[in-house]
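The freezer alarm interrupted the setup, so I double-checked each line after restarting. Inputs confirmed:
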Amino acid sequence: MLTVKNLRKEYTNTVAIENISFSLQPGKIFGLIGPNGAGKTTTIRIILNIIKPTSGEVLFDGKAMDRTIQNLTGYLPEERGLYKKSTVSDVISYLASLKNVSSPKAAQLANEWLAKLGIIEYKNKKIEELSKGNQQKIQFITAVLHNPKILILDEPFTGFDPINQQLIKETILSLAGEGKIIVLSTHQMDLAEKLCNDIFLINKGKEVCSGSLSEIKRLYGTPSIKIEYQGDASFLNQNSDVTHVDMYQNYAELQLRDSINPSHFLRSLVDKIEIRHFSIIEPTLNKIFIDAVKD
Amino acid sequence: MKKAFAIAKWEFMEKIKSRAIIISFFLTPLIILGFSILPSIFAEKDEATTEAIGVLDDTQNYFSSLAEKLSEYKLEDKQPRYLVVNLYKSGVNIDSLKADANRNVVKKKMEGYIFLTVNGKKETVFEYRSLSLGNFNDYKRFEDCFNKIRRLQEFKKANIDTALVSHLLNNIEINTVKLDEKGKESSADFKSQYFSSFIFIMILFMVIMMSGGMLVRSLVEEKSNRLIEIIVSSCKPDDILKGKILGLSGLTLTQIVVWALIGTAFAGQGLVLFASFQNLILLLVYFILGFVFYTAIFVGVGSVVTTEQEAQQITGYLSMITISPLVIMIPAMQNPDSILMRVFSYIPLTTPGVMILRLNSAPISTIEIAATLAELLLAIYVVIKISSKIFRIGILSYGKMPSITELFAWLREKE
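Predicted 3D structure, all chains:
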């Protein structure tokens, strides 16, 4: 288990993050989300022992993060690039050697991963000869090759076409299935929603909300109701049970007062309009994110 | 340390495979060779033909002796170097003779002419007139010959034994013999000392500038593509620093070995030069320590750079600092034990350069050698400490370069 306790990082004139705490379980994907400049990268850098926090600590299985644990981490930074003039296998083997993987072992693992991601034929090509997407795949491989227990992926999907996004998504899920602790930092809320078990929303260096995805939706999002109907539904605008209405041609989206049970509300409508479809829509992470950051 | 070696190996292997390095391996010695050999080739070419030199001797005393003396100078193929032509015609006005001679020089019928006359104060006037006065050797010879002849004639007039006089007129040249601490003799003159030290120091600065530039550029690349974050998340910044210095040192040593091999293969001259170093091992020690010292500075400063442009600027400034000992090169050789040179020997920036010069020109006491080495090692330690502090933060800061106050704040920051 990876535990982050009361992290605070100050720079000369600014506080980058403050009072950040969370814990991550093996086999689960942890979504670290927040707008640009929120403090995600600082948090990630502290977890990776790249920088020291001003106060607070990061523990892995109860032990403070140190140089030996660094070999157990894998990192895919948001901004990417590799040694352009070097060959794929050289770069992979070099970065693996920094994680204490011997070169024969690295070569074997590189072959496996290159085959898995469908780019084995580029093994001896120079990085600069590869397409952007394939370069990203190489970078992904360098983050996971040494079989890290903690994997930190900062915007892993940018630069991939939908097919490769799918491939990377499946790979991440299978890595989680192997019991790795995965931190996923992204702006793509739909993907975060599909992949993450737990979410930590950070803004201006502080926690906005955190917990399991369903918990966050329950606590921070208000479900809406979608009704498709025939007839005159203008009375909904004056209905005291309703807090917000968006009327469209043949349907309406509305939000109910907290105390109102949706089933009771449906019953009250049946006499007034002809209902064709009635559904409760869960709030999207995107909506929660935007609302939270706006506040 | 294992990771430092992994980094060193990577830096070494990747750089040695690059085209730029291969070019510098072979091109640089060619350039040095070119600079040292071409001038002498051209200088020899200059002497390849016989030149017509006129003599317009208004005094009518010197022509025949001068012609005789100048004919002693021969080309390689035994042809005379100078074809001496008498321009004097009795009964013709000297000014019109001069005008004729000038015309002939302009028409390139002769290279130039010697004009001899006596002025109003009864002093002898001796001139060489030519379109080009670039060939210093030529008119130096004319001057020597003329003065010898003149003295000889004056002594003759005074009835002094001419055999004795001509014997006395021959200069005896000084022969320099260099002694080492044990009194062992070796022949070395100022010139060969100067050039051997010069080559040594030039190589030092060339490799520092080249590898320093390479280092800063590779740091900029790693910063701009964020690879540095992956590396820092895998090992200690100190290991990165050590690895980079180690890798570059290895690269530089390889380069020097290649150059030395090329040097020996091309010219035996190179061997003679190296043989004139009595303290080759000690020189190499100063060389290597100097290299490490400067490289450590480059690493620290280079880590704050974020763009290729800044990298070029910074390497420019740093190179100027590294090359500054060249300014005091001649005084250092002329007076290797002066107080000023002793002081420079203890300033880390100049220690390697000045000590290489001093070691090459005079024996230096063991105590002084030990003290300067200790001072240099201490300086390296301090610079690595400072550099690694700057490096630790510098490699992770992007955007603008830090101000001096920010740098000091970094230095104060705890690890």
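Quick read of the result. Residues 296 and 384 of chain B are 6 Å apart (CA to CA).
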